[in-house]
Amino acid sequence: QKEVEQNSGPLSVPEGAIASLNCTYSDRVSQSFFWYRQYSGKSPELIMSIYSNGDKEDGRFTAQLNKASQYVSLLIRDSQPSDSATYLCAELPTLNSMIKAAGNKLTFGGGTRVLVKP
Amino acid sequence: GAVVSQHPSWVICKSGTSVKIECRSLDFQATTMFWYRQFPKQSLMLMATSNEGSKATYEQGVEKDKFLINHASLTLSTLTVTSAHPEDSSFYICSARVTSGRQYNEQFFGPGTRLTVL
């Protein structure tokens, strides 16, 4: 059974600081990773996708992937109160053999709730 | 990102009636769409994977005769909740995955449909 683990939080961050979110996964051959943001009462919104080891930056967000250690993280720089939400980590197998075994579907972590305090 | 729409955004119905929810990919073709359900303060739960032109694949514990899925075109999937009961009241969210181009393998969510069964 594949698992994606996240600390449920809440992660409390002062406005302007860096929020650091971590996610670990159990399937060593997982290929694709995604971070979603979900505001209360709303549907998830894709923030970042990352497929290769290293960092990927998009605006105030940086995703980091370390396949050897099986973790993926998300940094939010200059955190704003509007960043207060639940952040979901997800993984997707992308090799055909893995898709056949696991199904062609995302596996989500439980989410980390982030609170940015003014 | 790619855009997924859902209609209606909310619906209230009487117990025993059926409700149809539409999910459309507006700017891309989606051979596969996904239907999720989310209860308050709980995680997303995948109900079924909808494949264009073929039968949907339901997750364990989801009644296929109660939650009818039709994926008749590359841009439209529908979920019909048949003989709805109060326990079916939930937030239903569809999702579609991009299968070509720059956003390959990224999965986007619709805004969700809040169903209340009286």
Architecture overview:
The complex is a heterodimer of chains A (118) and B (118). In chain A, 6% of the residues lie in helices and 51% in strands. Chain A is mainly beta. The longest helix of chain A has 7 residues, at 96-102. The model of chain A has no long low-confidence stretch (mean pLDDT 91). Helices cover 0% and strands 51% of the residues of chain B. Chain B contains no helices and eleven strands. Chain B has strands spanning 4-7, 10-13, 19-25, 32-38, 45-51, 57-58, 67-73, 76-81, 90-97, 107-109, 113-117. In chain B, strands 2, 4, 5, 6, 9, 10 and 11 form a seven-stranded mixed sheet that branches. A four-stranded antiparallel sheet of chain B has the order 1-3-8-7, with no helix packed on it. In chain B, β7 (67-73) and β8 (76-81) form a beta hairpin. The radius of gyration of chain B is 14 Å and the shape is globular. The mean pLDDT of chain B is 94.
Give the secondary structure arrangement, pairings included.
The complex is a heterodimer of chains A (118) and B (118).
Chain A: E1 4-6, E2 11-14, E3 19-25, E4 32-38, E5 45-50, E6 54-58, E7 61-66, E8 71-76, E9 85-92, H1 96-102, E10 107-108, E11 112-117
Parallel strand pairs in A: 2-11
Antiparallel strand pairs in A: 1-3, 3-8, 4-5, 4-9, 6-7, 7-8, 9-10, 9-11
Chain B: E1 4-7, E2 10-13, E3 19-25, E4 32-38, E5 45-51, E6 57-58, E7 67-73, E8 76-81, E9 90-97, E10 107-109, E11 113-117
Parallel strand pairs in B: 2-11
Antiparallel strand pairs in B: 1-3, 3-8, 4-5, 4-9, 5-6, 7-8, 9-10, 9-11
Spell out the key features of this protein.
heterodimer; A: 118 residues; mainly beta; six-stranded mixed beta sheet; five-stranded antiparallel beta sheet; 11 strands; globular; B: 118 residues; seven-stranded mixed beta sheet; four-stranded antiparallel beta sheet; 0% helix; 51% strand
